[in-house]
Amino acid sequence: MATIIDVARYITDRLGPMSAMKLQKLAYYCQAWTLVWDEQPLFNDEFEAWANGPVSPTLYAHHRGQFQVDSSNFRYADPGALSPEQRVNIDKIIGFYGQQTAQWLSDLTHQEQPWLQARGNLAPGANSNALISKAAIHEYYSAL
Q1: CA distance 115 to 112
Q2: d(CA 13, CA 97)
Q3: End-to-end CA distance of the chain, in Å?
Q4: Dihedral sign from CA coordinates of 115, 5, 58, 131
């Protein structure tokens, strides 16, 4: 199975440099829509309900302290671990979401139930490492 780092490399190879926040949101949407379309996760890594939207701690460890990321952040990744079908799906997802800004993507996740439910009653901007479950992601995006 591919890792989130393999997916991040694939995305940055396709779209070029971007903000770390945008990459986090694109990886999240890749996982969400893969759960819907393929009925299985794209990667095993989890997302947490951070203040600016869903964040993968695994991915965050590869860009911590950096505003911009590119393929060099993921030089040890293996985008070849993605199946041809997974690549097609990722291309569809980044084709739809990829032209949006990081802030637009973050704002979108703030309106969606998986992030909202994981955050619960936390104040806006409050720190959280609450897990956004794959089940909640699948249930929400399947209903769209």
Answers
A1: 6
A2: 16
A3: 26
A4: positive
Q: Taking the domains of the chain in order of start, what are their residue ranges?
A: 4-142
**Could you say which DSSP state residue 73 is in?**
G
CA-based torsion, 34, 45, 144, 142: positive or negative: positive
Nearest to 4 by CA among 50, 65, 51, 54: 54
Q: Against a cut of 0.85, is the pTM above it?
A: yes
What residues contact 37, with CB distance under 8 A and at least 6 apart?
89
Calculate mean pLDDT across residues 116-144.
Answer: 96
How many C-alpha atoms does 108 have within 13 Å on its Cβ side? 14
Q: pLDDT grade, residue 123 (50/70/90)?
A: very high
pLDDT band at 118 (very low <50, low <70, confident <90, very high): very high
Amino acid present at 62: H
